[in-house]
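Chapter summary example.
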Amino acid sequence: MQYVVNVSNVTCFMMLTILFQCLSSTVGFGFGCSYIARYEEQGIGSQWSNINSSPIPEDDFSLLSCMWVMLIDSAIYLLITWYVEAVFPGWFAFASYFCIGYLPKM
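The structure predicted for these 106 residues follows.
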């Protein structure tokens, strides 16, 4: 889903739904920026003391949750990149099998 659709319906979603939507890097970054902007609108600013609380009343999602999801998202992208680079290495390298963990017996 796109970030614009998610922001317009953010009050209708549960926290687990928002977490899964933030696995898309652009949506997670957009949510993080919107939470920082809401802290700035309130005149508080995002600080280490309020990073775990939400600037929106009755909201379970926070900037810290967004940061954790973006960290998990980067680990998933790292694993995907490692796998694709091992299976399709380019012109001058040897390709691995599609099932990297299970090598055929010879």
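To summarize the output: The two ends are 46 Å apart (CA to CA).
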